[in-house]
């Protein structure tokens, strides 16, 4: 199981460009759809907790999923699997990027990747909406936080605390 976890998360780490939220659709596909390691509800809960936990969401998710599946060893295998491709790629690219960053080809590749990253983040949002917003209150709360995020400087921790408080009252 440990090697399978490592490989699954190494694959996710190798193909998830764009940061933590871009990993969610890939992680969902491997852990829920393909391997059946988690239910959709479990995955949604882990994403919510990973968002509230300090640190990168992708690393938090890998750690939580690995721990759920095989304890401390599973957490280590999944987390190491997730970060190994990035570490190797960073070591390879760091030496060359400064030298070639102004080249047309490099700029073109980056321009092509950006829309894909946006699409993966949107897919993660759709996944989260389907798993977490189950009633009118949930829709209203999601829209309120979206508005606050877009148009105010309110810190996200305050939004999470307010939403948790409202959830205690409503639910």
From TrEMBL:
Q: Where are the transmembrane segments?
A: 6-28, 49-69, 75-97, 109-133, 139-170
Any GO CC annotation of this UniProt entry: plasma membrane
Please report the name of this protein according to its UniProt entry. Chromate transporter
* Family affiliation: Belongs to the chromate ion transporter (CHR) (TC 2.A.51) family.
UniProt keyword annotation of Cell membrane present: yes
Source superkingdom? Bacteria
Q: Which GO terms describe its molecular function?
A: chromate transmembrane transporter activity
Q: What is its main location?
A: membrane
Q: What is the membrane topology listed in the Swiss-Prot or TrEMBL record? A: Multi-pass membrane protein
Alphabetically sorted, this entry's keywords are: Cell membrane, Membrane, Transmembrane, Transmembrane helix
Looking up Pfam families in the UniProt record yields: Chromate_transp (PF02417)
Q: Does the keyword Transmembrane apply?
A: yes
List the source organism.
Metallumcola ferriviriculae
Provide the protein's localization. Answer: Cell membrane
């Amino acid at each position: 199981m440990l090697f399978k976890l490592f490989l699954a998360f190494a694959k996710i780490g190798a193909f998830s460009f764009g940061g933590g939220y871009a990993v969610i659709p890939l992680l969902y596909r491997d852990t829920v759809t393909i391997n059946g390691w988690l239910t959709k509800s479990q995955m949604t809960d882990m994403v919510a907790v990973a968002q509230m936990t300090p640190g990168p969401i992708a690393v938090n998710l890998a750690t939580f999923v690995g721990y759920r599946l095989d304890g401390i060893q599973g957490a280590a295998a999944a987390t190491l699997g997730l970060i190994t491709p990035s570490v190797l790629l960073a070591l390879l690219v760091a030496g060359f990027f400064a030298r070639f960053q102004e080249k047309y080809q490099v700029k073109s590749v980056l321009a092509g990747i950006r829309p894909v990253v946006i699409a993966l983040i949107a897919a993660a949002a759709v996944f989260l909406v389907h798993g977490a917003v189950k009633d009118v209150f949930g829709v209203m709360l999601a829209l309120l936080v979206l508005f606050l995020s877009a148009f105010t400087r309110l810190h996200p921790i305050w939004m999470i605390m307010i939403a948790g408080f409202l959830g205690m009252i409503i639910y």
